[in-house]
Write a structure and sequence with these properties.
With 298 residues, this protein is an alpha/beta fold. The chain has eleven helices and twelve strands. Strand 1 (2-7), helix 1 (26-36) and strand 2 (40-41) form a beta-alpha-beta unit. The protein is globular and about 50 Å long.
Length: 298
């Protein structure tokens, strides 16, 4: 069984906070990601929005587009409106042969609000659950028909944050709604990522390998910090630099016959955490641990 290793550009520049790496070029990001060993990268705000522009750049650095984030507003929009909104990104991903699209509902999200603690994040009422699942089922089917799986991302500060939220979403949606498991977000939410990948192995199509610094995690929870405050404090880091032991996690993925991307993702201030150095650290740890778990690295 083999996996491929990718990385998110958020370590080099943060789309939500341009002051973090705003002056770092896309070329620097791609060059350093490839030098660190990664063969894939997720999309970001500095990426061209057309395949005619993006594909030559990816080819220049011999790196693949291995997915990317899409923030949806299905609780406010119709499926038809959401499909219209996602169309440009969807066509770009199809042209670039990305394996899936990382999809998250961001209606009323507080992930970017520095003043709102995570305890104030939005939660779905039962009627909202029914509406949401119906819409996301339709959305998943439409994306599946275009051979671009919807890989739902549970995310701090959003309506699908906790283990309970994630389980309910997976249980109440059809087979076209897949899952991006994010170790850091699930740990932050107090959940068990091992249970999720055991119980929903057929749903897992994408993996974010995000680690956490235990002392900052504990502070963030005890002081009820906002998501933005937590990551500026240094809550997140690359695998091998935090408190998550990836050996059991990767061993379970190997048992599940997972054979797609493992993506290193860690929101950090690039002035405090040199992106290239941390990319190398994450790659070295993850590749070594994946091999120990029985994977071949492609």
């Amino acid at each position: 069984m083999s996996v491929k290793l990718g990385v998110a550009p958020i370590a080099w520049s943060n789309d939500d906070m341009p002051e973090l790496g705003g002056d770092t070029s896309l070329e620097t990001c791609l060059s350093e990601a490839r030098q660190a060993g990664f063969t894939g990268i997720e999309s970001g705000g500095k990426f061209p929005k057309t395949s005619s522009e993006l594909i030559p750049i990816l080819n220049k650095y011999n790196i693949n587009l291995c997915s990317g984030w899409y923030g949806a507003n299905l609780l406010k929009r119709s499926v038809k409106e959401e499909m219209k909104n996602i169309r440009g990104q969807l066509d770009l991903f199809k042209d670039c042969k990305a394996p899936c699209i990382v999809f998250a509902e961001i209606t009323d999200s507080i992930q970017g609000n520095e003043k709102k603690p995570l305890s104030k994040r939005p939660q779905l009422k039962n009627d909202d659950w029914i509406t949401f699942c119906k819409k996301i089922n339709e959305m998943g089917k439409r994306l599946e028909d275009e051979e671009m799986p919807l890989a739902y991302h549970h995310h701090m500060g959003t309506v699908i944050q906790s283990q309970e939220d994630t389980i309910r979403l997976m249980q109440e949606t059809n087979d076209s709604v897949k899952l991006t498991i994010d170790t850091g977000h699930m740990l932050f939410a107090g959940g068990d990522y091992l249970k999720i990948i055991k119980d929903f192995k057929e749903k897992i199509v994408h993996v974010h390998c995000k680690d956490m610094r235990k002392n900052v995690l504990e502070k963030s929870l005890s002081e009820d910090l906002s998501f933005r405050h937590a990551f500026l404090e240094g809550a997140f880091t690359v695998p091998g630099d935090g408190c998550i032991d990836y050996k059991p996690f990767l061993s379970q993925l190997q048992k599940n016959n997972y054979n797609s991307w493992l993506v290193v993702e860690a929101e950090q201030d690039p002035k405090k955490a040199n992106p290239f150095e941390y990319a190398k650290k994450g790659y070295n740890y993850l590749s070594r641990t994946a091999k120990e778990a029985g994977f071949e690295i492609k």
